[in-house]
């Protein structure tokens, strides 16, 4: 009897709560993108045609399925900076440590659940020089999961919960 009680308590503590979270799907296309500044055009690596990459938004308890498609000539992997990978260490992103890098023309789906975390974080490439060029904002909001509409949008009421958590932020990585 005591063993079953211990098992039940540990299951509640260690396993993510599937009741409150939803599954969020994102696709990150890593491609070369031409940018013109001051009459000079340069090719840089972008995420979904953006530099920095798109903002990812989730809530505690959400399961994330993030498909990363590599269209650049370099291998790549993505690290979710600040996300504790509980029972999903293979989704942490360091190439050759927790996963093989994503090769040119290939894709990989990162699958993990956010457990007991919130805040403004970021994701970035975790291989070679790409770690300084491929990155974006990652927001984990608090509370029960629900459809996230207008979070970070200028039309959002600034007095409502989480309205200023995911506003645009410039992240400088040096």
UniProtKB/TrEMBL annotation:
Residues 30-140 form the Plastocyanin-like domain. InterPro entries: Cu-oxidase-like_N (IPR011707), Cu-oxidase_fam (IPR045087), Cupredoxin (IPR008972), CuRO_1_LCC (IPR034288). Coiled coil: none annotated. Residues 1-21 form the signal peptide. It comes from the Eukaryota. SUPFAM superfamilies: Cupredoxins. Keywords: Signal. One of its GO terms (molecular function) is copper ion binding. PANTHER family: LACCASE (PTHR11709:SF398), MULTI-COPPER OXIDASE (PTHR11709). Belongs to the multicopper oxidase family. This is Plastocyanin-like domain-containing protein. It comes from Brassica cretica (Mustard).
